[in-house]
Amino acid sequence: MSGAGAPRIEVDGAGLRVTVVAASWHTQVMDGLLAGARGALERAGVANVRVVRVPGSFELPVAAARAAEHGADAVVALGVVIRGGTPHFEYVCAAATNGLTDVSVRTGVPVGFGVLTCDDEQQALDRAGLPGSREDKGAEAVEAAIATVVALRDL
Ligand code: DLZ
Q1: pLDDT digit string (tens) for 41-59?
Q2: What residues form the catalytic site here (predicted)?
Q3: Which pLDDT score is estimated for 11?
């Protein structure tokens, strides 16, 4: 999927409670995603931030569900899954994607999707918000989640 066409989103998250659920595989990329998310939360004026680490992306939905059911106004899910030589990649990606979608739709709490699903580590580094990265998917996931909280207020 190309990053071309992404909107520039300006968000005001003052007063919101945001929980970041973050997997732990692929440390360097995760460090970039987390730093990008923290920067975007600060720019948006979100003071009430919790960060919860889980082992892998497969565990993101259950943590997101707990956060959504216990007072978070928005959840941001961060993870990195890199394709290997077995079908495991497809299963972990599908579990994370479907699980996070289910949490969001079922609870009504927006979940920002900052899970990178990449063929190799370089693709992940390019999107990690690190020096030299082309994109910052941690920040984008925060901005999307907060923008959706604001959009839902009008419905
Ligand atoms: C097992 C596994 C593998 C092979 N690769 C990744 C990965 O690239 N990214 C990731 O976030 N998690 C990976 N995992 C771990 C699973 O998400 C999960 O934590 C384990 O299967 C234990 O439930």
Answers
A1: 999 999 999 999 999 999 9
A2: 88 (proton donor)
A3: 83
End-to-end Cα distance, the chain: 30
Pocket test for ligand 1, best of 57, 60, 116 (most atoms within 8 A of CB): 57
For the residues 124-136, what does the mean pLDDT come to? 97
pLDDT of residue 10: 80
Q: Which two tokens stand for residue 122?
A: 């370089």
Fold classification of 37-55+70-77+88-120+128-144 (topology level)? Rossmann fold (3.40.50)
- Specify the residue with its C-alpha closest to ligand 1, atom 2: 56
Nearest CA to ligand 1 atom 14: 56
Reference 45, options 10, 6, 7; nearest CA is: 10
Residues designated as active site: 88
Count the Cβ atoms, other than its own, within 10 Å of residue 106.
11
